[in-house]
Amino acid sequence: MSAQILAVALILGQLMLGASLLCATYRLMAGPRAQDRVLGLDSLYVNAMLMLLLFGIRTGKTVYFEAALIIAILGFTATMALAKFLMRGEVIE
Amino acid sequence: MTIGAELPAWAAIAVAVLVLAGAAMALVGAIGLLRFGSFYDRLHPPTLGTSAGTVLICAASILCFSVLGTRLSVHEMLIVLFMTVTTPVTFMLLARAALYRDRIEGNPDVPQSDG
Q1: Which range has the worst mean pLDDT, A24-28, B49-53, B88-92, B103-107?
Q2: Which chain B residues are closer than 8 Å to A86 by Cβ?
Q3: Which of A39, A50, A66, B98 has an alpha carbon within 20 to 30 A of A73's alpha carbon?
Q4: Which CB contacts under 8 angstroms, 24+ apart, belong to A26-33?
Q5: Does domain A2-88 bear CATH number 1.10.287?
Q6: Residue A28 vs residues B12, B33, B57: alpha-carbon distances, Å
Q7: Contacts with A33 from chain B: Cβ below 8 Å
Q8: Which residues, numbered 35 to 74 in chain B, qualify as contacts with chain A under a Cβ-Cβ cut-off of 8 Å?
Q9: Helix axes A2-30, A34-59, angle to 10 degrees
Q10: Where are the domains of chain A?
Q11: pLDDT tens, residue by residue, A57-85
Q12: B42: domain range?
């Protein structure tokens, strides 16, 4: 019984996160301006990281946790660099 | 589908509730990102996913692996800590960059000075 509850909840959670990924992808594609695209990319990587955590719970492996941590760190760096680029036109001055 | 059989019922139900709540938070944030009108409005809703969504799903993961491994497994706290520290920094920087661009273009919808 508990296995079915957990399986259904994980599938529902992954569907919801998939819908969030679609919303973020639309914002990434549609813009309308560059800062909206950066915001969509930021939301995309956060939702992908949550999705990886759910994969980790489903399979019981810790590999997914490490991938999620790396996505969190690299996503932060990417958004910082893009915001810096939007402000100054260069990343490293 | 290998994990549910070994979890006791109370832990499975708690993990299920936490996962559903976290994913729902992320979905609400993403819908807000889709529907709000201006960039400065759209800046707010994704933080639902980065704060509440991350905390709830990481709590589900901590509970699941702590019960399964019969020891405390807290390394998901690293993700929570990191997201809590970095999200305000990135969004403040992004908002300042957008404000700078709008001021350069002479957009009348944004205030022209910080004073």
Answers
A1: B103-107
A2: 94, 97-98, 101
A3: B98
A4: A26/B34, A27/B33, A27/B34, A27/B42, A33/B39, A33/B98
A5: yes
A6: 36, 10, 24
A7: 39, 98
A8: 39, 42-43, 46, 49-50, 53-54, 57-58, 60-61, 64-65, 68
A9: 160
A10: 2-88
A11: 888 888 888 899 999 999 999 999 998 89
A12: 9-104
Q: What is the pLDDT of residue B76?
A: 85
pTM of the model: 0.88
ipTM over 0.90: no
Tokens 């800062």 belong to which residue?
A: A35
The SS3 call for residue B112 is coil
DSSP 3-state percent helix, strand, coil across chain A (nearest 5): 85, 0, 15
